[in-house]
Amino acid sequence: MARTALPGRLSARLEWRVATLADYVDETATARTLLLDVPGWPGHLPGQHVDVRLTDEDGYSTQRSYSLAAPADGERVELTIQRVADGEVSPYLAGDFAVGDPVELRGPVGGWFVWHPSRTVPVLLVAGGSGIVPLMAMVRARRQARSRAPFRLIYSVRTPMDLIYASELRRSARDDGGLDITTVYTRATPEAWPRAPGRLAGSDLEAYGWPPQFEPTCYVCGPTGFVEHVATSLVNLGHDPRRIRTERFGPTGG
Ligand SMILES: Cc1cc2nc3c(=O)[nH]c(=O)nc-3n(C[C@H](O)[C@H](O)[C@H](O)COP(=O)(O)OP(=O)(O)OC[C@H]3O[C@@H](n4cnc5c(N)ncnc54)[C@H](O)[C@@H]3O)c2cc1C
C-alpha cells in the first residue's frame, strides 16, 4: 500500500531527535530544570510539550510528556522535571541524567493549550505544583514579546520550599507590568501569610482571578484532580467553559 506523505511540519514534529543535556538548574529539592540542545528543533509556542523517550541497553523503552518551560530559543529547549518519588522516569531525568548525556525527544506537541503572544485578551493562569511549567513559558513569552495582555497567575503549592521559579516569579511580580501573581499554600505558609494553608477554593479564584465578565482565557495545569476541581470552580463562577483550557499532568507512561 502506498504511504501517505506527511506535511513537512507534521513529520518534523513526529521525528525523534537526539537532545543533549547542556546544563541544569535545581529549582527546589525535588525539581530540576534541564537545558537541552536539540539539533534541528523546529520551534514551539508557550504551552506546548514534548515526548521524551528513554531506552536501556536491553532495548526496553519508555516515554513521558514534559512541558516546554520557556519560549522558543533556537535549538535550546528547557524542561522542568518534578521528581515523583516512586517514578520510573522523573527520578532519572532530575537526578543521574548528566551534562553531555543524550535523550530522545519529539515535538512540539499540542495546539490547544497554547498562548499566542499576539493575543491581547486577559489571561488567567492557574497552576498546581509542577503545573506551573507551561504557564511559566507563557509568562516568559509575554515578557519577551513586551505584551500588555493583562495576566493573573494563581500558583498553588504545598509549602514555600516547593515553589518552582521562586525568585524569577518574585522579579516578574515586581517588574512585569500588568502581571499579578498570587501564591496559595496548601500545607504550610511563610510567616504572617494572610491566607491560612488550605486547598485552592472557588473563593480564591474569585478573589485573585478575573471576573467572568472580562472574558479571560483561562489556562489550568497540574495534577488531574486539581485541574478538574479548578475547571469546575471556574464554571461555577460563571466562566464560559469554551474559554477554559486545561492540561492534566497525569501518568503518561507507555
Ligand atoms: C502533557 C503533559 C505534560 C507534562 N509536563 C510535565 C512537566 O513539565 N514537569 C513534570 O515534572 N511532569 C510533567 N508531566 C508528568 C510526566 O509526564 C510524568 O507523568 C511524571 O514525570 C511521572 O513520571 P515517572 O515515570 O517518574 O512516574 P511513573 O513511573 O509514571 O509513575 C509512578 C507513580 O507516580 C504516579 N504519578 C505519575 N505521574 C504523576 C504526577 N505527575 N504527579 C504525581 N504522581 C504521579 C503514578 O500514578 C505512579 O503511582 C506532564 C504530563 C503530561 C501528560
UniProtKB/TrEMBL annotation:
<dbReference type="InterPro" id="IPR017927">
    <property type="entry name" value="FAD-bd_FR_type"/>
</dbReference>
<dbReference type="InterPro" id="IPR050415">
    <property type="entry name" value="MRET"/>
</dbReference>
<feature type="domain" description="FAD-binding FR-type">
    <location>
        <begin position="14"/>
        <end position="115"/>
    </location>
</feature>
<dbReference type="InterPro" id="IPR001709">
    <property type="entry name" value="Flavoprot_Pyr_Nucl_cyt_Rdtase"/>
</dbReference>
<keyword id="KW-0479">Metal-binding</keyword>
<keyword id="KW-0001">2Fe-2S</keyword>
<dbReference type="InterPro" id="IPR039261">
    <property type="entry name" value="FNR_nucleotide-bd"/>
</dbReference>
<dbReference type="Pfam" id="PF00970">
    <property type="entry name" value="FAD_binding_6"/>
</dbReference>
<dbReference type="InterPro" id="IPR008333">
    <property type="entry name" value="Cbr1-like_FAD-bd_dom"/>
</dbReference>
<dbReference type="InterPro" id="IPR001433">
    <property type="entry name" value="OxRdtase_FAD/NAD-bd"/>
</dbReference>
<protein>
    <submittedName>
        <fullName>Oxidoreductase</fullName>
    </submittedName>
</protein>
<dbReference type="Pfam" id="PF00175">
    <property type="entry name" value="NAD_binding_1"/>
</dbReference>
<dbReference type="GO" id="GO:0016491">
    <property type="term" value="F:oxidoreductase activity"/>
</dbReference>
<keyword id="KW-0408">Iron</keyword>
<dbReference type="GO" id="GO:0051537">
    <property type="term" value="F:2 iron, 2 sulfur cluster binding"/>
</dbReference>
<keyword id="KW-0411">Iron-sulfur</keyword>
<dbReference type="InterPro" id="IPR017938">
    <property type="entry name" value="Riboflavin_synthase-like_b-brl"/>
</dbReference>
